Amino acid sequence: MKTQEFLSLLKENQNKKILFEYKKGSLVGANYHITEIKNIIIDAVDCGAGTDYWKETIVQLWESPTEKDTAEYMSGFKALDILNKVDHIKPMEKNAEIKFEYSNANFHTAQLHVLSHQKNEQFLLFNLSVQQTDCKAKDACGIPVETENDSNTSCTPGSGCC
């Protein structure tokens, strides 16, 4: 999800509570705070000597240990207000991918991608996921590239899988 799409969703859903599912069935606690917004520039070289460059927005979520009994989630209005304040101080790249940095006692620190979102009358829920590492230079490293048919367990004549 791009930063602009996230901001637009907050703007359209200011009266809703904002929830984050950091792994299936596990929500960031209602006591979360947005503690930091990072404008990240990635200028990379992969193992095959390929270069790449991109930008990301990282929103850090932190659960306050002194507010464990908090039952009310942050509203879209409050989250948007925080992000707008940050944007006035350090403008965010609106076309950059947005990620959420989070951890707790049972979950390692990770930068999580937005897989999807759902909304109802009360909530706007963002489903987050850890993106696995991968080799970007499979050809140069001699790693076979998995095709769509590689995961197909049924192989029929003419399908190209056998």
Question: How would you characterize the overall build of this protein?
Answer:
The chain is built from three helices and seven strands; from the N terminus they run αββββαβββα. The protein is 17% helix and 40% strand. It has one domain (3-136). The protein has helices at residues 3-12, 76-89, 138-141; strands at 17-23, 26-27, 32-45, 51-63, 97-104, 107-119, 123-130. With 162 residues, the protein is α/β, with parallel strands linked by helices. A seven-stranded mixed β-sheet has the order 2-1-7-6-5-4-3, with helices on one face.
Side by side, the strands of the main sheet go 2-1-7-6-5-4-3
Strand content: 35-45%
Helix content: 10-25%
Number of strands: 7
In the predicted model, the low-confidence regions spanning at least 5 consecutive residues are none
**Using only CA atoms, what is the Rg?**
19 Å
Discrete helix count:
3
Largest sheet: 7 strands, mixed
What's the structural domain tally? Answer: 1
Q: Kindly report how far apart the N and C termini lie.
A: 36 Å
Mean pLDDT: 91
| Net shape | globular
Q: Helix-strand pattern, N to C?
A: HEEEEHEEEH
Q: Please state the structural category.
A: alpha/beta
